[in-house]
Every structure is written in structure tokens, then in C-alpha cells.
Write a structure and sequence with these properties.
By secondary structure, the protein is mostly helical. It is 50% helix and 11% strand. The chain has a two-stranded antiparallel ribbon. Helix 3 packs antiparallel against helix 4.
């Protein structure tokens, strides 16, 4: 990810297919990235993330369970800006995030 122009080119191709936005930022000690390093970041909404995960699912090996759980959890979630999730939705999301975090742990049973 050190070579920002190539990174942004790859992210741009993904953004064209799945949507979202790309930002190029300088790292800071208080945020993502090391101070003085430039990094690129691709962001998408929940709905678009589900579409992206469905598109790459056939190619995933290591993170397949996490992607399947994210699709199952967030599929059908439709929210506009400034629309709060209800308590039931938050509980479902938090359970899924806990399972995904567990699967992401080094040495976790996959």
C-alpha cells in the first residue's frame, strides 16, 4: 500500500463496480496510519458492502466465514442518512461483530 497511485487505481476500479468513496490521507498518531505516511481508504455503505461481499465471496478462502456472516447480518438493512437503528438491530449487529472478531483472532478455529 506504499505506492498510492497504484493503490488508488485498484480502489477506483472497485469503486466503479461497487460504489463508495475513496480518500487519500496523511497518517497521524491519533488516527489510522503512521505519522507522515500517506494512505488510501475506500468506504462504502452497509448496503453496498453486502453487494461487494457477495461479489467477492466465491474467491474468499481465509475470510469466507466472516464475509458470509456479514452478508447474512446486513442483507436487507436499508437506512438513509441520519436514521437510527433500533435496539434489536444493534443487538444483532453486536452479536455478529463479536463472532467476526473471534474469527479474526490469530489461531481461531475457522
Amino acid at each position: 500500500w506504499k505506492n498510492i497511485p497504484e493503490t488508488v487505481a485498484v480502489m477506483t476500479a472497485i469503486r466503479r463496480r461497487y460504489g463508495g468513496s475513496i480518500g487519500v490521507n496523511a497518517g497521524s498518531e491519533s488516527g489510522f496510519g503512521k505519522t507522515g505516511n500517506t494512505y488510501a481508504k475506500w468506504s462504502i455503505s452497509c448496503r453496498l458492502a453486502v453487494d461487494f461481499l457477495k461479489g467477492i465471496l466465491p474467491f474468499l478462502r481465509v475470510k469466507r466465514k466472516q464475509a458470509e456472516l456479514a452478508v447474512k447480518t446486513f442483507q436487507g438493512v436499508r437506512r438513509g442518512r441520519n436514521t437510527a437503528y433500533n435496539d434489536t438491530e444493534w443487538q444483532r449487529f453486536e452479536k455478529a461483530w463479536a463472532v467476526i472478531r473471534g474469527l479474526n483472532q490469530k489461531g481461531a478455529q475457522k
